[in-house]
Every structure is written in structure tokens, then in C-alpha cells.
């Protein structure tokens, strides 16, 4: 297996990329295993947040160059190479990328498919595809531009340079930077916090934020208001508001 799945805390799942000999380069096998694992966890009401991580040395050093190198245009087009990664964006449970070391090319793009990005001080982000004679192919030109703006995205994508964790945080790619040895614990803590909320509310919040990338402001605000109304049909809304009034902790049932 090129990924492992653990349950390090209540309602939290941890998926770890595990191809150390290739710095977690993403091949077809990894794509299948990772998207299958994430979809399975997403179907479980027992999982409220999923952490995705790699090793200390590499989150992922890109798509597997050796696997792609000899492919022709016809093959890439016929197989719609990389389209399988879209499955990850259909995961409704909050996804947290915990990045240490290299997050390059497809590695950076994979991290950007997650909802929250935590970085160790060792993290290095980049889209070096231009140095291979190609361009990002797993959403980098779109998600990086939306995340950090045209100026920085063009800088990274056209020069292929890498960006340190502090720069990634300054330009808004990363939510938090933590000392290397704290990354895993911090990611699990953030995941546990999210997983302690109403799952239906957390999934709805994720859906609403993601809608902002796909719609006009007026449509997005209307979508938000409608799903906000819909949450009043949940038990968790009744419990959350009752708990506030009664000055106690809510006991969410995730429905
Ligand atoms: C396949 C890879 C790989 C990759 C590293 N390896 N990255 N194999 N695909 N993307 C392999 C190396 O070949 C090597 O295997 C082993 O991992 C260790 O890597 P080293 O290069 O020896 O390590 P180091 O000197 O520490 O350098 C680390 C690195 C470098 C700076 C991250 O490996 C590197 O530049 N990798 C490629 C990064 C990249 O260009 N990524 C974008 C890929 S394209 P052996 O067997 O030799 O020991 C992409 C998007 C696709 O992601 C979009 C369309 C193309």
C-alpha cells in the first residue's frame, strides 16, 4: 500500500502517504488508494475530519515523473490523466493537509485540494513543472492563483521556484506554520476540534466556503443563506443553541 490509514483520536482519521523511496511521488496506485481511502472515510458518520500528511522529508515531491515520462499526448488525453484526483474534491468531510518537507508540483496541488493547510517550518511549496517542459496538471494554475493571487502564482509557476513555509503563510496559502516536531500533533488537534462540531454543520460550512470559488457574490450569499436556513432542520442546531442557553457543552449527534 502507498498510503496508510489510522484513527489517532476520536472522530479523526489520518491518511499518510507512504512511498518514501520516491519522496511520496504520486503515481496512479497512490491516486487510487488515496481517493478510495478518503471516500470510505467520508462515508462514515464516525469520522468528522481527515488529516492528510506525508513524511518529515516530503509531503509529496510531485506527480510521479518516471511514470509519465514516456507517455504520448494521445495516451494522456485518452486516459484523461489526473482526472481521478477530482474524487478528492468530492469528499465532504473537512480535509486538513499537514505538510512537512517538499510539497512540489502535484504535491502542492494535492495539499491545495484540502480545506486547511498546516505547514511545518521545513515545508517547501512550488510548482516546478515548467522546469520539466510542462505546466501544472492537477489544478495548480487555478487553485494556486485563487489562493495567493496572480502575482505570486505567476512568479512560482513561471520560474519554478520554491517558497518557504513563512512566505506561504504570508501570502495566504497556509493557515498556520508550526515547529517541525509539532506538526502531526497540531494537525490532529485541529482535526479533533473540527470533528467535535456538528458534522452536518461542518460539511455545510465547507460546502459554503467552496461555493465562493464557483459562483458570483450574490449567488454565493444566497446559497449560504439557504443552507443556513436548512441547518434549522437538524437536531444539532437545536442541541447547540439549547446548550448555549443552558450554559453547558453541546452533545452533537451529527444529524
Ligand atoms: C518520481 C521522484 C520524484 C517525482 C523525487 N523522486 N521526486 N520520482 N517523481 N516527482 C525520486 C528521485 O528520483 C529519487 O529516486 C528519490 O525520489 C529521492 O529524490 P532525490 O532527488 O534523490 O532527493 P533530493 O536530492 O533530496 O531532492 C529532492 C527534490 C527532487 C528537490 C524534491 O527529488 C526533485 O526535484 N523532485 C522532482 C520535483 C518535481 O519536479 N515535481 C513536479 C513533478 S510534475 P532514485 O530512485 O533516483 O533514488 C507534477 C505535476 C504534474 O507534479 C503536472 C503535469 C506534468
From TrEMBL:
Keyword annotations for this protein? Fatty acid metabolism, Lipid metabolism, Lyase
Q: Does the keyword Transmembrane helix apply?
A: no
Tell me one GO molecular function of this protein.
Answer: enoyl-CoA hydratase activity
One Gene Ontology BP term is: fatty acid beta-oxidation
- Enzyme group, top EC level? lyase
Assigned EC number? 4.2.1.17
| Cited function | Could possibly oxidize fatty acids using specific components.
What NCBIfam families does this protein's entry cite? PRK05862.1
Which protein is depicted?
Probable enoyl-CoA hydratase echA8
User: What species is this protein from?
Assistant: Amycolatopsis sulphurea
